[in-house]
Records
---
Amino acid sequence: MAALACAGPWGLAQAAGNEAVGDKLKPAEPIPMGKSLQQGGTTQVPYDQLMQVKALDGYSEPDWVAELVQSGVLPPVEERLPAEPIVVDTTSVDGSGAYGGVLRHVSGARPQGWNWMAGNTMAWGGVEEIISQCLVRNGPVWMLTPEKTEPLPQLATSWEWSEDGKALTMHLLEGAKWSDGDPFDAEDVMFMWEDNISDMNVPAWGRPQAFGEGTTLERVDDYTIRWRFQNAFPTATLYQMGYQKLCPGPSHILKPLHPRYNPEATYQSYQSALRPENVPWVSMGPWTVTQYQSDQIMVMRRNPYFYEVDQEGKQLPYLDEVQYKLSSWEDRTIQTVSGSADYANMEDPSIYLESLRRAQSPDFANQIIWGARALDWSMYMNLSAVCGVEDESDLALRELFRDRAFRRLITQAVDREALGQSLVRGPFIMPHAGGLHLETEFGDPSMVTYYPYDADGVRAGLTEMGFEDTDGDGIVNWPEGGPRAGQNLDISLLHTSLYTTDVNIAQSLTTMFREVGVNVVLRPHSQDAEQILDTCQWDWAIRRENQPNQAPILSLEEMAPLSPNFPKWHLGSPDKPRELLGFEQELTDIVEQIRYAPDANARNELFRAYNKVFTENVYTVGLIQVPAAIVINKRFRNVPPGTPIVAYGWGEEGAMRERFWVPADLQGDVPELGEDTLPGIEN
Amino acid sequence: MLNFVFRRALSALGLLFVMSVVTFVLIQAPPGDYASTLKATAMSRGGMNAADAEMLEQQTRERLGLDQPIPVQYAQWIGGIVTRGDFGPSFLQNRPAASVIGERIWWTLGIAIACHVLATVIGVGLGIWAAVHQRRFGDSFAQIFAFLGMTIPRFFMALVILYMLAFVFRSPYIGSLFSADYIFAPWSFGRFWDLVLHIWPVIVIAAFGGLAYNLRVMRGNLLDVLRQPYIEAARAKGLPERKVILKHAVPNAAHPLVMYQGVIMPYMVSGELEVAIILAIPTIGPLMLQSLQQQDIYVTATIFLLLSAILVIGNFLADLALAFIDPRIRHGARS
């Protein structure tokens, strides 16, 4: 792709000169590829095998639940399950499991209440995926084989497009029941859509326009709903129908609390009605909350009406209980590594070596399951010519960043190998060219234009652009003729001081840029770094990305300047729209095509094309790609190899906890707090 | 005396008012607010798209009154406290700030008082012992002990203990007040012992600094007193050494420590907060940190107000005690 000149009027090299800058530098080369750290490869399961909707010959349940059926307090399992339950494959992992056992989590968040449709959070850390079930399920998509990757069934079991592609008919899980035995049907879905998502007085997690302008939803019958869209085949919209977006609550409980149906209720009372201590809570999930002690613990017990079974007809989940200790996020890692809790995400490279060293010991309580290199640190350059620009001097700097030749100089000033090794020695960290991750289902080295480290070339290129060290202090000076004429090339670098890795990267970069004559001034911030990004009062910034680059289908609007808020490094201002660079329109066009691409293969092709344009133009300065791992106690089975801590969902959901099991002889290691009890069932 | 009490109470209230204004303005100083934190959470954890998150942010700001000017927000907050005893909502937990803080404050105060008692009893005892054994091995040992107590940062001690408990001893008693099976259990000796097993690191670390202070002050003052002529006179009269020390010397050396009691509570509370944050014990400390980070402003402001009140009340009581025993204070020391 030709260099896109955007040179300012202050004596910087013009378009032809910019080509000359490129000539001084080492050309692009194949990106160095590291060996995957995933042990046993990645779990790969065909779409139609992982979750099927079908009736089996018979069903079974834990013995102690069968006793409750015998005593008459619970209907038989066949009556509690849908006529065609969701059959979850376990042959791709360790197989059908034993009933019983406890999974202990730690969460740093606190539940605000159980009415998630009214904006309440439920403590995070995987609580919300248990308690709120959605129309479709995204988390396990990472393990699907490439021929078909699309959201999996959950409360909607199948869907078909109309011929013109403007209507999508969804079939709901027929005969499923809430954990109190009340039937689930289209009324629950329509209550969510009409009285929560579409009611602007309810602070819902999503609004109708998230599904495309003019999108409507109608009830066809008790178990069928139909979407109508303005544009044909918005296939990517299916992903918006999962986690946190389209997850109905129990209308039989919530309707009487909603102001539209209860004149005595207010929107505030509706939002606050379902306090965390209001247990047992009613859910469609595999477990539901039965005990809660503020700031200390949430205990969840198995939902006797859960709608999934394994291929042998055993009703899921296998585990009777999930505990959520309410503490801090730091405590989650500490407790898990020490063996007092069972699950955590390991995403801080500074602890990798120590964790692996400890894992060598046979009495280490956990297994460490590496996922893809799915975390990355990148450096943004503020490309806005309008937002946060107060004078000619600011503009000169921004115009410099908008010059592709300069961005290429900067990316080739970074020694990514050294940067990675300075953080943690070993095979963990790989160079990152910016943009999407290579270790995805669409990843391919050909989608990356990688510019190698070349300090000498960068120095020559800066000279070519007119930057020379005229005062002998080791920093190049701006050329004559502009508002910064003669000044040192000083650039501030915003970064968070909350995480060690960010601080270390920022300090290393300062040294690297100084070697080529650019003076980078560190600007550490704690919580407010995000706000500073939004107000455009920054030059360069370091940020860690994960999900948008690993599963971009979930965040299409973040990939190109489609909405006013993205990308963060090129914002407009309220009175002045941003001035797009030439290739940005190209990126926007590709993302629009992705939105309506009919299948995964076509989408993946477009993702690769997108990344090529992105990296050729050095849209961001990629730094390093880092793997992450989940740490989980060794007593658990059916934990899929290669589970990412975050891809299409967080690792807790991506791993499919309802099929985890613990061998009977290990179940006593952690006692159940609510042994032999079910939510809402007196026994 | 009544006049003095009235004047001091009035100035204490004035000080509290000024502190409440300053803290409220300070916690609002960083850019952004809870609505922008929620927006970031909705996007990063909730997977919300940018346009929806923006809308959620705006709606939240309006719903919670965060779009009002800071003086209006302050007036509403302080007005709620004065007229209704309402300290505002906790945005993060969707319930009153007073209830969120109320659940934790008793643990904080209880731990701080336990630390204070331990620090006083052990510190004073060691101080007496060190003074009596001046320049002998025990004295040197106590001096080193005090030196360490006053110089090692509490957060560092907490990190070391946490590391040892978690990774060396694999203790299950970390990061909470009770083990899971005792959380819902009624009080019993077993539950109390379980609490002790969880809570001792906080008490030991928070008490250590205060203990060291008491030790040094007691030792220094007692050494001064022991050189006074009346002590020599007591000895010359043939009183046993134990009686000389405990009856005549110690009471006269304890004055600075008695005066210090008025301000010790905030010191103990702050020590407890620091350690509880590292050890993730659910007292006020972690709550304060979380509310600051996520801009849950009414919780932060109420905690600061509470800590200010503890400090002001402590000083007020100390002044009263001083005035009670020293007329020059209550009369303004004019003569």
---
Amino acid sequence: MELQSLIYLFVGISFAIYIGIALWAKAGSTKDFYVAGGGVHPVANGMATAADWMSAASFISLAGIISFKGSDGGAYLMGWTGGYVLLAMLLAPYLRKFGKFTVPDFVGDRYYSDVARTVAVISVIFVSFTYVAGQMRGVGIVFSRFLQVDVNTGVIIGMAIVFFYSVLGGMKGITYTQVAQYVVMIFAYMIPAIFLSLQVTDTFLPQLGIFAQTTFEFNDGVRAIPEGTYLLHALDQSIADLGFAEYTQPGNLWNMFMLTTALMLGTAGLPHVIVRFFTVPTVKDARVSAGWALVFIAIMYTTISSVAAFSRVNLIKNVQNVEYKAFVNGELTHADGTPNDGRWFKTWEHGGLLAWNDKNGDGKIQYAAGAAFKGKPAFDGENVAEDGHRLTTNGVPAENNGKIENELYVDRDIMVLANPEIANLPNWVIAFIAAGGLAAALSTAAGLLLVIASAISHDLLGQVIFKDKTTGKSTLNEKSELMWARISAIVAICIAGYLGINPPGFVAQVVAFAFGLAAAAFFPTIILGVFDKRMNKEGAIAGILTGLIFTFGYIVYFVFLGGDKADYFLGIAPTGIGTIGTVLHLIVAFVVSRMTPEPPQEVQDLVESIRLPNNAGEAHDH
Amino acid sequence: MSPEKAQAYWKENIAMILKLLVVWFVVSFGCGIIFIEQLNSIEISGVKLGFWFAQQGAIYVFVILIFVYVKAMTSIDEKYGVHE
């Protein structure tokens, strides 16, 4: 079957399943809407958490980032998984015992203050929108590549689909949809990884592929590295030949340390992940559920490091020193007779994420360290050269000190999507990747939108604005709160769509920033709320504000206002600054709380009761 | 439950968490970052050990840690009769 028809078929079938599930699990009450009625099985919840949390960034971009960063990419792998250990031990069980719906609920009740609640609501909305903008852009990119529409149309299609199941189904619909999305996603990731592993190393399990030896003579354009060399040795040697730092050579360990910490604390503080642990029946289930979530995440995350290494090898193997015209017309073969079909090159070139600048005019592609031209490719309209490659108008950077000149620009985000095509894998594998990428982006977008919707309807409207002053209870009945939740979800989708169509221009880093903000704003507040009985509302509010403002200010100053790298605080890059934000939050919260009155007795009793796992409230069946 | 017993339960809980977090720190920040270069001098089948910890090994240990935690916590819960 043609690739395009297969893509329509796979994407169509997967969407039909998601929408079918949304209709089947339609939310009837606010409890269904916010926390799926609190009766989700821990394994199912683990799977849904994994899907919720593994975003377009994990699925589409991460292997690409690591492929180009090499050893330092470990910060992302350890950071995004290590946070689950903190989540399981320090947060999930206690929040489940607390037994309300949202993070602001916890903050508002534990710190007996509507100011604290409101600060938390604003932080939740802020962090979630930062994160969701990247997801919607991801949805747009995947749709545009695979359905051959432009990116903006892709974003709108994505909005329509998220609208359908998150607004109708709420958390209950989303949980079961996400279980289906996890299954689609993991198959879509593993199958091409297994194919690649077999192709490059003859090893079935990609996790073990990096321990294997190459199945081919690896010619990097400088020398031929013989067949049977250990894969990582071959990779280290070849990219060193091409002028890059060795793949397994660590870089700046201090920044790796800060980034890893920020990502770990952020994972544990992300509101849409935390809310997942309100959806299981018991405290024990909340602990187990975090374990299952990490199992399901680890299946993919332990594969990513291998996919990253394979991709880099594959890229060099297939594009180095090949004649452009014959390559993109699919006329080339490797030494062993297998095809080296470069039609993918043309597709991505037209998508604007790949560019070739034939500097030495030999008609062949050369890949090496250094820039192919100044900055990102600026294409000369639709003009092409004689051999068919798109012309760029960028200037040429200084000579590469007599080494091989790099002529190739590859956007990191295309590595996972393009890899199966680069490796000439069967069409159904490529179609599957499309369905998986969409599942990843949509599941995270839906989870985040729901958190935004519940923050607005439940916490802001229900607990602050429509609160009866005398009874302290919400004057909204369940039906009108559910209506507000749906309205908020619709508004949130529209804003997310707008951000996806008009991205603030920093999508690649946005996810890492959202983690930094989540770390600095939430992680310490919740931890202190459980582990420090003396923590009071003054400390909490001061802490959240310090963490959020410091981290946000640092990022804005150095990333968007052109702050100079030389002025980095202790040399810390903006992606890792959440770590310092978290430390400041802890210190300020501690100091302020000790200078102000201790919390009222009933709050201290609440903390005591959260610490004990029994009587967590009944589980609700569907 | 008496306040003393609740206190003892909480202490035991914290002690256990701290032990597990030490392991968590050693395999990730220790093996994968701080001592990565030293561990990289050990190589198994072409893969440097520090590199492996940062890219795969730490993740396997994280998974094991959570299930060890669940098991240990369950037995502490039962010991103090606060399980469900």
